[in-house]
Specification:
4 copies of one chain form a homotetramer. Chain A has helices spanning 2-21, 32-35, 54-61, 140-143, 169-173, 186-196, 220-225, 232-239, 266-274, 286-290, and strands at 69-71, 88-97, 104-113, 121-123, 128-130, 144-145, 148-149, 160-168, 183-184, 205-209, 229-230, 245-248, 278-281, 295-300, 310-312, 316-318. Chain A is α/β, with parallel strands linked by helices. In chain A, helix 8 runs parallel beside helix 9 (266-274). Chains in contact: A-B, A-C, A-D, B-C, B-D, C-D. Strand 3 (104-113) of chain A pairs antiparallel with strand 3 (104-113) of chain B, so a sheet runs across the interface.
């Protein structure tokens, strides 16, 4: 790994220069000995997913009063926004007419997609690293093969049934949509929770409504160029509540680009690498917000992709 | 469509010849005027999915007593069996090291797959037809575009939360696995239900344990070569119970090849084309059967693939 | 094909309306009985490719004097322009370390692409039709299967070694690049040929330099938005010279959009459907033009894609 | 790279054990200081491709007497044999009917394939390594990105026009096909050349007819299970003749598995890694052999895949 070593050395030098000239970055990941083993134990691959227990299910189910199902996923199709070079292409394999007196025609489709990382989408721990070090200090080169990850794969998570909480920050601020790169503050979250009369509990699936989802499929260029969301401070505050996951109606859960231009999507590392908390992106939260459904049973079934970094999902809120 | 017209004319001639020489096929789909409009109304695209109502959810949730979650999906990976030329290929897009003082590495994967029709998998109504006529007499050429179906797409179904019932036919027959192309009879189903003390209700997700799932990932060649399952009679009997879907631990739900060699997978047409009842294939039912969990809350979230013929899924049983 | 029949009827009505209000389209394809069978005989699939004979090769080889090879293909990579939704994605399948004392590492890549229709690219006769009728009146629905065309596939063409001629229209007009949707006239071609002192011969591979190729990989948005090129008149004039193919340094060989807004890329039909003359797109002609190499041995080897509509190629000029 | 370091240490230990018990492997790659820089100079990426010069072209063209073209490539389609998990899938994107009075229909296809490494196929130097060291000691981790190799990519080679020589070993041995894992000896090659009255020259494209190509598309399982071909000794002898490439009608050019079970496809390293000589696999040589065409102009145009490890090709012999 000589090339990376050189890169790091050079960037350390550059960082030194920057420090001399300007400010240090507002956040960098803690050293491995400060974050490993994780609180879930050495070798653990599930992180906050360990919150999923029978009692968690029972507590969630108690929130179901009317049987109303609210979908939290966008449709997967040609109108989707994409991050970078990702895509979702579907090629129809049109009618194969089977032999037989019953004249049975059969259709299917070939899909080409980063199916773990497009659309409404759930992030696993193989997705992100600090240098080459993932959640619980698994090393990239020790857990990768040609066909996927041998540790931390998304097939390990199982289904989620837990209490879901919507924090409607856009609603709290009295706007349809937060500004293009507005960083949500701890005060915003506390204010929204107070206004909603909602408290957070261990193991919650926490979803933040920024209103940014209004652009999804309508102004995709703007949707992916930047977005409002939580930053280092709010993420740190939320992670301290010990949730099972953090979600939002924007593409990276967090504010992007980060107001501190020296760092790149730090909440991805705070959640996935340092604390083992999953992320859930590109949620469709407009219906929840409109109905002021702040507390509900949250249900999600990731595809069991062996060695996958994540999964496109179709989660629901039930109440 | 001259070529198909010719094909049909020829096959009609051949059928005529066969009738003269031998027996008529044991089943062919009814004429369009006998099956359309469907009982759910002209233009309906959801079929038995219309059973999904708030009360259905509440009834299902009542079955959750302990919070135990039992997974019904196999892992998606290189060890899977495939029908025909289908596949699931995953290509790791290994670490992209982002710029930034937080040294964030990012991994993802490109998946190439008939993601609607591989693994544990849910069939929609665009998947099958009688000649060119689908559920509710939608015509293939009127509802297909380059990128998928414009009607009957799987994005319409929404999530399923309903009462699930396991019919353990292998258990009833006292075998680990039914024979390689054993056709399950109505008597088998009635006997198993009686033994289990289970009754069927409108809107149930009905799953049949043949034991064939034991071969999944272990002897894939045998798994896909044939399988035990329901035939025309048992399917007709089950469909009359008005279920939301029919599932099994084999690859086509039904017996294959059909004992009547003149017809090809007729249960696909009975369920999907004629009656608008969904199919759920390649289920992992061993745990349910071992635990004698015959009644449970069934939860499934198909991917919202626009115009898709089906969806790979990760359903669960909760009790 | 009811839906298409309706579409045609409606468009005929609309056309009628347009005629009443405005002008008829400047060109529509001739009726089938005027163009079929082709001059190469009923059932012929090779069209102008029939010009390839041993004597054609010998004539071309005589033009090789210095052994200089000039490449006419652009590199296939992330900087390419694309028409519509086409793409060229390459996913590295990084080192598989084989067992063995010789410690052999192996790399390969998965490519996802309309490999017949991206980059420097050669069009076959399955690519285009008038309604459902291709070259020599092969019908789309009679020659298509799930996996490609059963007639007119690109695997039939074989390699091309013939006299190549560059017609440098940009050079004749004294510009680096023709205007964004300039239609090259017959006079332009005659003028350029006279200036170059070049005459056309039966079986030539004719390539037109518009200068538009300067934008390839540099301003891809502009490159594909429109382009200068030949229109109906110049194409008709060129096709009458009986060439083996027509090529250019733009994306459709012809001017786009056509100045007659009622018709869409008519030269595609004039060449591929009506006359069986191949097209060669996205050529890199800058070096030829700079060296004033107007006559040379043209060599091209399409991939032998069974049932393919075309092939990405790497043709060369040798002199 | 700790995991690989461990692997190597362990394999060194195992090798030690094997030496104590049995024989040393018959060949391992030379140390880097014995093979780098290559004879073409430090930093060179073209290897034997440097033989391509104008005089090479002129010499080849002199061999063209009749203009006869003999194709050396198999068709790319569903009947192809594949090595390992490689594939060639084509999905027809059926008719898009463009708007316009000229009613222009357009078809294309999506291809999913290791297009550099399937069918009749040309190997570049990024394809193979000794540990992490390629031709001219380029290191894998220093020349790989997500989207391909930054050095040694196949786009660098350009077209090949050179003298081609067929060595018909099957013909020399008087058999239609050599045995399933017959290792061709130096004596076989010398004998065949003498019988043919052919001599080798610097820069030749050398192709060996084993007869194994008869199985291509007919008994694919046997075709890829093993094959006759050259081994370490014959490869060393041939490489000393300084050819531009070595090809054969089998899948790896060389005998497989190697008779020395301790080593894996050593000729790949001898040619590609140590000597910078290209390999050309899965050639169709039956017509050349039947016509006793032992000397000819060899022409090949690899696709210009940026950073690719190789290219599927359609080479020809012209005489």
């Amino acid at each position: 790994m000589k090339s990376i070593a050189i890169t790091l050395a050079v960037s350390a030098l550059l960082a030194g220069t920057i420090v001399a000239k300007a400010q240090a970055p507002s956040w960098v990941p803690p050293a491995e000995n400060e974050r490993c083993p994780s609180k879930w134990g050495a070798g653990d691959e599930r992180g906050a997913g360990n919150h999923m227990k029978p009692q968690t299910v029972l507590n969630a189910v108690k929130l179901i009063k009317t049987g109303e199902v609210i979908e939290l996923a966008h449709v997967l199709g040609p109108g989707m926004p994409f991050f970078g070079t990702r895509r979702f292409d579907m090629h129809l394999k049109r009618t194969f007419m089977n032999t037989g007196a019953n004249e049975r025609g059969s259709n299917e489709e070939m899909v080409l997609s980063e199916i773990g990382q497009v659309g409404t989408q759930f992030d696993g721990f193989a997705h992100q690293s600090h240098r080459n070090s993932h959640y619980n200090c698994f090393k990239t080169e020790e857990i990768t093969g040609r066909g996927g990850f041998t540790k931390l794969g998304i097939q390990n998570t199982g289904a989620f049934i837990t209490r879901g909480v919507l924090i409607d920050v856009a609603g709290f601020k009295g706007v349809e949509m937060l500004g293009d790169n507005y960083e949500i503050t701890v005060e915003d979250i506390e204010g929204a929770l107070k206004k909603q009369n909602t408290s957070l509990q261990q193991g919650d699936a926490i979803m933040i409504n920024t209103g940014w989802g209004r652009l999804y499929g309508k102004d995709n260029a703007r949707f992916v160029k930047s977005c409002p969301g939580i930053g280092v401070k709010a993420a740190t505050w939320l992670v301290a509540k010990d949730p099972i996951l953090l979600g939002a109606d924007n593409w990276p859960v967090e504010v992007a680009p980060n107001p501190d231009t020296q760092i790149s999507l730090p909440v991805h590392q705070i959640a996935l690498v340092v604390n083992g908390v999953h992320l859930l992106e590109n949620l469709k939260l407009d219906e929840l917000a409109a109905k002021q459904a702040y507390e509900f049973a949250f249900i999600m079934q990731p595809l069991k992709i062996q060695g996958g970094t994540g999964s496109t999902v179709s989660p629901i809120a039930v109440r």
